[in-house]
Design goal:
- With 370 residues, the protein is an alpha+beta fold.
- It has two domains: 51-206 and 237-281, Probable tRNA modification gtpase trme, domain 1 (Gyrase A, domain 2, 2-Layer Sandwich), CATH 3.30.1360.120; 283-357, Beta Barrel (Elongation Factor Tu (Ef-tu), domain 3).
- It is 20% helix and 33% strand.
- It is built from nine helices and 19 strands.
- The chain has helices spanning 12-17, 38-47, 67-71, 122-132, 155-160, 203-213, 224-233, 260-265, 271-280; strands at 21-25, 28-33, 49-53, 58-64, 87-93, 99-106, 113-117, 137-141, 145-151, 174-179, 182-187, 196-202, 219-221, 284-291, 302-304, 310-320, 325-333, 342-347, 350-357.
- The protein has a six-stranded mixed beta sheet with strand order 10-11-12-9-3-13. The chain has a six-stranded antiparallel β-barrel with strand order 14-17-16-15-18-19.
- A hairpin with a 5-residue loop joins strand 5 (87-93) and strand 6 (99-106).
- Helix 2 packs across helix 7 (224-233).
- 47% of the residues are buried.
Protein backbone atom coordinates (compact mmCIF):
# COMPACT_ATOMS: atom_id res chain seq x y z
CA UNK A 1 0.00 0.00 0.00
CA UNK A 2 1.47 3.35 -1.00
CA UNK A 3 1.99 6.17 1.45
CA UNK A 4 -0.73 8.15 -0.30
CA UNK A 5 -3.39 5.48 0.31
CA UNK A 6 -2.59 4.78 3.96
CA UNK A 7 -5.18 5.94 6.45
CA UNK A 8 -4.15 8.03 9.41
CA UNK A 9 -5.42 8.09 12.99
CA UNK A 10 -6.49 11.32 14.73
CA UNK A 11 -3.07 11.28 16.45
CA UNK A 12 -0.97 11.25 13.27
CA UNK A 13 0.20 14.86 13.63
CA UNK A 14 1.16 14.26 17.26
CA UNK A 15 3.29 11.26 16.25
CA UNK A 16 5.10 13.26 13.58
CA UNK A 17 5.73 16.10 16.03
CA UNK A 18 7.18 13.62 18.53
CA UNK A 19 9.66 12.29 15.96
CA UNK A 20 7.99 8.93 15.42
CA UNK A 21 9.11 6.60 12.64
CA UNK A 22 5.92 5.76 10.78
CA UNK A 23 5.25 2.43 9.06
CA UNK A 24 2.26 0.84 7.29
CA UNK A 25 0.19 -1.31 9.64
CA UNK A 26 -3.35 -2.63 9.08
CA UNK A 27 -3.82 -0.05 6.32
CA UNK A 28 -2.73 2.87 8.52
CA UNK A 29 0.41 4.93 8.95
CA UNK A 30 1.37 4.02 12.51
CA UNK A 31 4.34 4.82 14.79
CA UNK A 32 6.71 1.86 15.13
CA UNK A 33 9.01 3.76 17.51
CA UNK A 34 9.88 7.22 18.77
CA UNK A 35 13.28 8.79 19.44
CA UNK A 36 14.12 6.52 22.41
CA UNK A 37 13.87 3.35 20.33
CA UNK A 38 12.06 0.06 20.90
CA UNK A 39 14.24 -1.30 23.73
CA UNK A 40 13.95 1.79 25.93
CA UNK A 41 10.24 2.15 25.17
CA UNK A 42 9.65 -1.47 26.18
CA UNK A 43 11.52 -1.15 29.49
CA UNK A 44 9.89 2.22 30.24
CA UNK A 45 6.46 0.62 29.94
CA UNK A 46 7.49 -2.19 32.30
CA UNK A 47 8.69 0.32 34.93
CA UNK A 48 6.65 3.48 34.38
CA UNK A 49 3.76 4.12 31.95
CA UNK A 50 3.58 3.99 28.18
CA UNK A 51 0.94 5.64 25.99
CA UNK A 52 -0.05 3.80 22.80
CA UNK A 53 -2.17 4.89 19.86
CA UNK A 54 -4.46 1.97 18.93
CA UNK A 55 -7.01 4.02 17.00
CA UNK A 56 -6.61 1.74 13.98
CA UNK A 57 -8.66 -0.87 15.79
CA UNK A 58 -12.37 -1.25 15.11
CA UNK A 59 -14.83 0.12 17.65
CA UNK A 60 -18.56 -0.52 17.41
CA UNK A 61 -21.81 -0.60 19.35
CA UNK A 62 -24.09 -3.59 18.92
CA UNK A 63 -27.64 -2.45 19.60
CA UNK A 64 -31.03 -4.11 19.41
CA UNK A 65 -33.61 -5.96 21.48
CA UNK A 66 -31.11 -8.46 22.91
CA UNK A 67 -27.56 -7.71 21.66
CA UNK A 68 -25.89 -9.82 24.36
CA UNK A 69 -27.85 -12.94 23.42
CA UNK A 70 -27.33 -12.26 19.72
CA UNK A 71 -23.57 -11.95 20.15
CA UNK A 72 -23.48 -15.51 21.46
CA UNK A 73 -24.41 -16.72 17.96
CA UNK A 74 -20.92 -15.82 16.70
CA UNK A 75 -18.79 -16.26 19.85
CA UNK A 76 -18.36 -18.97 22.54
CA UNK A 77 -18.54 -16.63 25.53
CA UNK A 78 -21.30 -16.17 28.11
CA UNK A 79 -22.44 -12.70 27.10
CA UNK A 80 -25.97 -13.03 28.44
CA UNK A 81 -24.27 -13.30 31.83
CA UNK A 82 -21.97 -10.31 31.26
CA UNK A 83 -22.63 -7.84 34.07
CA UNK A 84 -22.90 -4.10 33.56
CA UNK A 85 -19.52 -2.46 33.98
CA UNK A 86 -17.60 -5.53 32.84
CA UNK A 87 -15.63 -6.55 29.75
CA UNK A 88 -14.87 -9.99 28.32
CA UNK A 89 -12.24 -11.35 25.94
CA UNK A 90 -13.67 -13.58 23.21
CA UNK A 91 -13.19 -14.92 19.70
CA UNK A 92 -15.29 -14.58 16.58
CA UNK A 93 -15.68 -18.12 15.20
CA UNK A 94 -16.34 -19.60 11.78
CA UNK A 95 -18.50 -22.69 11.26
CA UNK A 96 -15.45 -24.95 11.48
CA UNK A 97 -14.42 -23.60 14.88
CA UNK A 98 -11.58 -21.48 13.49
CA UNK A 99 -10.85 -18.01 14.81
CA UNK A 100 -11.95 -15.19 12.50
CA UNK A 101 -10.61 -12.68 15.02
CA UNK A 102 -10.14 -12.16 18.73
CA UNK A 103 -11.86 -9.23 20.40
CA UNK A 104 -13.03 -7.44 23.52
CA UNK A 105 -16.72 -6.88 24.28
CA UNK A 106 -17.99 -4.76 27.16
CA UNK A 107 -21.04 -3.27 28.86
CA UNK A 108 -19.74 0.15 29.95
CA UNK A 109 -23.32 1.46 30.05
CA UNK A 110 -26.85 0.54 28.93
CA UNK A 111 -26.20 1.41 25.28
CA UNK A 112 -25.81 -2.13 23.93
CA UNK A 113 -22.51 -4.00 23.66
CA UNK A 114 -19.26 -2.11 23.03
CA UNK A 115 -16.95 -4.22 20.85
CA UNK A 116 -13.29 -3.65 19.92
CA UNK A 117 -11.74 -5.78 17.15
CA UNK A 118 -8.34 -5.88 15.45
CA UNK A 119 -7.62 -3.18 12.88
CA UNK A 120 -6.61 -5.46 10.01
CA UNK A 121 -9.75 -7.57 10.49
CA UNK A 122 -12.40 -4.99 11.32
CA UNK A 123 -14.14 -4.69 7.95
CA UNK A 124 -14.49 -8.45 7.62
CA UNK A 125 -15.43 -8.86 11.30
CA UNK A 126 -18.31 -6.42 11.09
CA UNK A 127 -19.46 -7.90 7.78
CA UNK A 128 -19.53 -11.37 9.37
CA UNK A 129 -21.51 -10.03 12.32
CA UNK A 130 -23.94 -8.16 10.11
CA UNK A 131 -24.63 -11.24 8.01
CA UNK A 132 -24.96 -13.62 10.96
CA UNK A 133 -26.96 -11.25 13.16
CA UNK A 134 -29.15 -9.56 10.53
CA UNK A 135 -32.46 -8.52 12.03
CA UNK A 136 -31.17 -9.06 15.55
CA UNK A 137 -28.72 -6.23 16.07
CA UNK A 138 -27.71 -2.92 14.56
CA UNK A 139 -23.96 -2.48 14.28
CA UNK A 140 -22.96 1.14 14.76
CA UNK A 141 -19.32 1.55 13.82
CA UNK A 142 -17.70 4.28 15.90
CA UNK A 143 -15.52 5.83 13.21
CA UNK A 144 -15.59 9.13 15.09
CA UNK A 145 -13.66 7.79 18.08
CA UNK A 146 -9.96 7.27 18.75
CA UNK A 147 -8.50 4.63 21.05
CA UNK A 148 -5.40 4.87 23.19
CA UNK A 149 -3.86 2.58 25.80
CA UNK A 150 -2.03 3.70 28.94
CA UNK A 151 0.01 0.76 30.22
CA UNK A 152 2.47 0.13 33.02
CA UNK A 153 2.79 0.15 36.82
CA UNK A 154 2.35 3.94 37.00
CA UNK A 155 -0.73 3.99 34.74
CA UNK A 156 -3.27 3.98 37.56
CA UNK A 157 -1.66 6.87 39.44
CA UNK A 158 -1.37 8.89 36.23
CA UNK A 159 -4.96 8.38 35.13
CA UNK A 160 -6.52 8.69 38.60
CA UNK A 161 -5.24 12.27 38.80
CA UNK A 162 -7.73 13.09 36.03
CA UNK A 163 -10.36 10.37 36.58
CA UNK A 164 -10.62 9.29 40.25
CA UNK A 165 -12.93 6.39 39.31
CA UNK A 166 -10.01 4.77 37.46
CA UNK A 167 -8.39 3.81 40.77
CA UNK A 168 -11.55 1.99 41.86
CA UNK A 169 -11.62 -0.23 38.76
CA UNK A 170 -10.15 -3.73 38.55
CA UNK A 171 -8.98 -5.80 35.60
CA UNK A 172 -11.68 -6.10 32.91
CA UNK A 173 -13.92 -3.41 34.38
CA UNK A 174 -15.41 -1.11 31.73
CA UNK A 175 -17.25 2.16 32.35
CA UNK A 176 -18.60 5.19 30.52
CA UNK A 177 -17.21 8.23 32.31
CA UNK A 178 -16.50 11.93 31.91
CA UNK A 179 -12.79 12.71 31.90
CA UNK A 180 -10.40 15.25 30.40
CA UNK A 181 -13.48 17.36 29.71
CA UNK A 182 -15.09 14.85 27.34
CA UNK A 183 -16.95 11.53 27.27
CA UNK A 184 -14.84 8.39 27.54
CA UNK A 185 -15.29 4.64 27.39
CA UNK A 186 -12.70 3.33 29.81
CA UNK A 187 -11.58 -0.23 30.54
CA UNK A 188 -8.86 -1.52 32.84
CA UNK A 189 -7.17 -3.84 30.39
CA UNK A 190 -4.52 -3.91 27.70
CA UNK A 191 -2.15 -5.90 25.52
CA UNK A 192 1.14 -5.70 27.43
CA UNK A 193 0.62 -7.91 30.48
CA UNK A 194 0.95 -4.80 32.64
CA UNK A 195 -1.75 -3.04 34.59
CA UNK A 196 -3.30 -0.33 32.49
CA UNK A 197 -6.27 1.14 30.68
CA UNK A 198 -7.74 1.45 27.22
CA UNK A 199 -9.40 4.81 26.60
CA UNK A 200 -11.94 5.42 23.83
CA UNK A 201 -12.25 9.16 23.20
CA UNK A 202 -13.98 11.32 20.57
CA UNK A 203 -11.61 11.74 17.62
CA UNK A 204 -11.94 15.52 17.85
CA UNK A 205 -10.55 15.42 21.40
CA UNK A 206 -7.89 12.75 20.91
CA UNK A 207 -4.82 14.91 20.33
CA UNK A 208 -5.67 17.19 23.26
CA UNK A 209 -6.13 14.21 25.62
CA UNK A 210 -2.98 12.50 24.30
CA UNK A 211 -0.91 15.65 24.83
CA UNK A 212 -2.33 16.21 28.31
CA UNK A 213 -1.49 12.68 29.47
CA UNK A 214 2.05 13.09 28.15
CA UNK A 215 2.60 16.15 30.34
CA UNK A 216 3.07 13.68 33.21
CA UNK A 217 6.77 12.85 33.42
CA UNK A 218 5.94 9.22 34.21
CA UNK A 219 4.46 8.76 30.71
CA UNK A 220 6.16 8.40 27.33
CA UNK A 221 4.69 7.60 23.89
CA UNK A 222 5.31 4.02 22.82
CA UNK A 223 5.25 2.58 19.29
CA UNK A 224 4.21 -0.68 17.68
CA UNK A 225 7.67 -2.20 18.05
CA UNK A 226 7.55 -2.21 21.85
CA UNK A 227 3.86 -3.11 21.80
CA UNK A 228 4.81 -6.30 19.98
CA UNK A 229 7.69 -7.24 22.28
CA UNK A 230 5.56 -6.50 25.35
CA UNK A 231 2.68 -8.70 24.19
CA UNK A 232 5.13 -11.47 23.24
CA UNK A 233 6.60 -11.47 26.75
CA UNK A 234 3.02 -11.55 28.07
CA UNK A 235 2.31 -14.66 25.95
CA UNK A 236 -0.55 -12.92 24.12
CA UNK A 237 -1.32 -14.03 20.55
CA UNK A 238 -1.30 -11.68 17.56
CA UNK A 239 -4.08 -12.31 15.08
CA UNK A 240 -2.88 -13.29 11.62
CA UNK A 241 0.34 -14.67 13.10
CA UNK A 242 -0.35 -16.88 16.13
CA UNK A 243 -4.02 -17.43 15.33
CA UNK A 244 -6.10 -17.45 12.16
CA UNK A 245 -9.18 -19.09 10.68
CA UNK A 246 -7.57 -22.54 10.71
CA UNK A 247 -6.76 -22.40 14.43
CA UNK A 248 -9.29 -23.27 17.13
CA UNK A 249 -9.38 -21.69 20.60
CA UNK A 250 -8.18 -25.00 22.09
CA UNK A 251 -5.16 -25.24 19.77
CA UNK A 252 -4.37 -21.59 20.49
CA UNK A 253 -4.42 -22.19 24.27
CA UNK A 254 -7.43 -19.88 24.53
CA UNK A 255 -9.88 -22.43 25.94
CA UNK A 256 -10.83 -19.98 28.70
CA UNK A 257 -12.73 -18.00 26.04
CA UNK A 258 -15.18 -20.91 25.75
CA UNK A 259 -17.38 -20.49 28.82
CA UNK A 260 -18.58 -23.44 30.89
CA UNK A 261 -22.21 -22.55 30.19
CA UNK A 262 -21.63 -22.52 26.43
CA UNK A 263 -19.72 -25.81 26.58
CA UNK A 264 -22.70 -27.40 28.25
CA UNK A 265 -25.10 -25.94 25.68
CA UNK A 266 -22.83 -26.66 22.69
CA UNK A 267 -24.56 -23.87 20.80
CA UNK A 268 -21.70 -21.90 19.25
CA UNK A 269 -20.07 -22.04 15.78
CA UNK A 270 -17.74 -24.99 15.36
CA UNK A 271 -18.87 -26.50 18.66
CA UNK A 272 -18.47 -30.11 17.44
CA UNK A 273 -14.76 -29.62 16.76
CA UNK A 274 -14.06 -27.47 19.80
CA UNK A 275 -15.88 -29.71 22.28
CA UNK A 276 -14.11 -32.77 20.86
CA UNK A 277 -10.75 -31.02 21.29
CA UNK A 278 -11.59 -29.99 24.86
CA UNK A 279 -12.18 -33.60 25.81
CA UNK A 280 -9.85 -35.48 23.48
CA UNK A 281 -7.01 -33.03 22.93
CA UNK A 282 -5.60 -31.53 19.75
CA UNK A 283 -2.95 -32.54 17.24
CA UNK A 284 -1.06 -29.28 17.82
CA UNK A 285 -0.82 -26.63 20.52
CA UNK A 286 0.51 -23.08 20.82
CA UNK A 287 3.48 -23.10 23.18
CA UNK A 288 6.13 -20.74 24.48
CA UNK A 289 9.80 -21.31 23.70
CA UNK A 290 12.96 -20.02 25.30
CA UNK A 291 15.72 -20.04 22.67
CA UNK A 292 18.79 -21.02 24.64
CA UNK A 293 21.49 -20.01 22.18
CA UNK A 294 22.10 -17.92 19.10
CA UNK A 295 19.87 -15.39 17.37
CA UNK A 296 16.12 -14.98 17.96
CA UNK A 297 13.84 -17.43 16.14
CA UNK A 298 11.34 -15.28 14.29
CA UNK A 299 8.03 -15.97 12.59
CA UNK A 300 8.34 -18.74 10.00
CA UNK A 301 11.32 -20.47 11.60
CA UNK A 302 10.88 -24.23 11.76
CA UNK A 303 10.88 -26.15 15.04
CA UNK A 304 12.60 -29.53 15.21
CA UNK A 305 12.76 -32.25 17.84
CA UNK A 306 16.08 -33.37 19.34
CA UNK A 307 16.51 -35.84 16.47
CA UNK A 308 16.25 -33.08 13.88
CA UNK A 309 12.75 -33.93 12.59
CA UNK A 310 10.72 -30.82 11.72
CA UNK A 311 7.63 -30.85 13.95
CA UNK A 312 6.35 -27.29 14.07
CA UNK A 313 6.74 -23.62 13.24
CA UNK A 314 7.40 -20.37 15.06
CA UNK A 315 4.53 -17.88 14.75
CA UNK A 316 6.02 -15.01 16.81
CA UNK A 317 9.52 -14.51 18.07
CA UNK A 318 12.11 -11.97 19.07
CA UNK A 319 14.43 -10.76 21.79
CA UNK A 320 12.94 -10.27 25.26
CA UNK A 321 14.19 -6.96 26.69
CA UNK A 322 12.97 -7.93 30.18
CA UNK A 323 14.67 -11.35 30.24
CA UNK A 324 17.61 -10.57 27.92
CA UNK A 325 17.06 -13.81 25.97
CA UNK A 326 15.31 -14.74 22.71
CA UNK A 327 11.75 -16.03 23.16
CA UNK A 328 9.14 -17.31 20.75
CA UNK A 329 5.68 -18.79 20.37
CA UNK A 330 4.70 -21.46 17.93
CA UNK A 331 2.79 -24.67 17.26
CA UNK A 332 4.09 -28.15 18.03
CA UNK A 333 2.40 -31.56 18.33
CA UNK A 334 0.74 -32.16 21.69
CA UNK A 335 3.42 -34.74 22.59
CA UNK A 336 6.08 -31.99 22.50
CA UNK A 337 4.08 -29.32 24.33
CA UNK A 338 5.06 -30.19 27.90
CA UNK A 339 7.12 -27.45 29.64
CA UNK A 340 10.75 -28.50 29.85
CA UNK A 341 10.72 -30.37 26.52
CA UNK A 342 13.98 -29.75 24.66
CA UNK A 343 13.59 -28.79 21.02
CA UNK A 344 15.56 -27.03 18.28
CA UNK A 345 14.68 -23.73 16.61
CA UNK A 346 15.95 -23.59 13.04
CA UNK A 347 17.45 -20.12 12.52
CA UNK A 348 18.93 -19.51 9.06
CA UNK A 349 19.19 -23.28 8.65
CA UNK A 350 21.10 -23.72 11.91
CA UNK A 351 19.50 -25.74 14.75
CA UNK A 352 19.56 -23.82 18.04
CA UNK A 353 18.69 -25.35 21.40
CA UNK A 354 15.28 -24.28 22.69
CA UNK A 355 13.00 -25.33 25.52
CA UNK A 356 9.22 -25.32 25.88
CA UNK A 357 8.23 -23.05 28.75
CA UNK A 358 5.07 -21.93 30.45
CA UNK A 359 3.55 -18.63 29.41
CA UNK A 360 3.51 -15.78 30.11
CA UNK A 361 7.27 -15.37 29.88
CA UNK A 362 6.99 -12.31 32.14
CA UNK A 363 4.29 -12.46 34.86
CA UNK A 364 1.08 -10.55 34.24
CA UNK A 365 0.52 -7.68 36.64
CA UNK A 366 -3.21 -7.12 36.21
CA UNK A 367 -5.02 -5.66 39.21
CA UNK A 368 -7.73 -8.25 39.88
CA UNK A 369 -8.78 -6.97 43.31
CA UNK A 370 -8.27 -3.79 45.32
Amino acid sequence: MSEETLKTTPLYAAHIAAGARMVPFAGYAMPVQYRDGVLKEHLWTRTHAGLFDVSHMGQARLKGQAPLAAFEQVTPGDFKGLKAGKQRYSVLLNSAGGIIDDLMAARPDDNGLFVVVNGACKDNDFAVMEQALAGLVEIERLEDRALMALQGPKACAVLAAYIPQAARMVFMDSIAVEGFGTDLLLSRSGYTGEDGYEISVPASEAERVWTLILTDERVRPIGLGARDSLRLEAGLPLYGHDVDETVSPVEADLSFAVSVKRREAGDFPGSARILAELTGGTARKRVGLKVLEGAPAREGAEIADDDGRIIGIVTSGGFSPSLSIPIAMGFVPQAFALPGTRLRAMVRGKPQHAEVTTMPFVPHRYVRKL
